Hints:
Elements: H1 2-52, H2 79-86, H3 90-96, H4 111-118, H5 122-134, H6 136-142, H7 145-176, H8 182-192, H9 203-213, H10 221-228, H11 232-243, H12 247-255, H13 260-268, H14 273-288, H15 292-297, H16 305-308, H17 320-351
Amino acid sequence: xxxxxxxxQRRSTQQGNLTRKIKRKATYxxxxxxxxxxxxxxxxxxxxxxxxxxxxxxxSRDLHLWIPKTDPLSLNTTFTGLQQVFNLKIKDFLxxxxxxxxxxxxxxxxxxxxxEEYNLDEKKVRRYFEPLNTFRGWLIVLRDTKFYRSIVSSxxxxxxxxxxxxxxxxxxALIIARFKRRWHFLLYSFYLIQMVxxxxxxxxxxxxxxxxxxxxxxxxxxxxxQWWKGAPLGIMIFTSYFSSIPKELEDSVEIDGGNRLHYxxxxxxxxxxxxxxxLAVIRIPQIWNLFLEPLIxxxxxxxxxxxxxxxFAGTYTSNLQAIYTTVLVSILPLLIFYLLARNLFIxxxxxxxxxx
Length: 356
């Protein structure tokens, strides 16, 4: 009887272990499948955007998982059309086919007429235009000097705006954090109420003041000042952080003969990893992707990458390949920045939650 009972217990234990193994394996498979699908869903928009840089407007109606073959170029296309579509320079065409640089090609001449007049091989001509048709967006963007200026402008706007906001927000929040009276809270609320007012609602009066009164049209300061004046998000983050720092730290600096600037530089700045990391995660993509402000305050020579896209959007036609290419290029610096600085952000965001 005892032997039979022990046998039943052993079988029951084996069945329980088998059930637990099956559950663990099923859970592992479910988690693997879920995160695989989630990762693909996260990466797919970037992949689709990359493929779109090679798709012509006619092919954009269909779904493409890889770079499609482009339609052969019509030999009846005029050189005026080629200049508009491919940003083709006649000089480059003449050099590719060993024609004299002083050769004059009429703008209304078609490719076929040029081939017949100068005895050009049709296969060679088609091979020449095939990569231009496929990589049209990349060639147009990379050959444009305004594109490289827009990259520089994007870094200037992002760096200047963010560093200036940290500096002025820190000084403002340091004062507000020491306010104790009731009316001081009203001043703090005055800064935060800016979060409720849409930026577009105050666009016209701010534009008139910055460009008309201060004369800052086509000047980076017209964008900087809008973020340096005391952005509510930065004020809220830094004020909350400074309020948690003991007043005794500032008193100890004064006892040692230091002033407020010494306290700010030697005590606060080294401890500001938490608020700076929190603000950077939110603010840097927001500033990098500014579109309206550069578009209305700056000329085309100072557009950032996002505003540069507007150059390819026409009233009746738009160069979709060039637009998709510029959008993709504008995303890459942010991805690289987050990959390089992710440990800094995580350490900054988590350091405030660990005490002792």
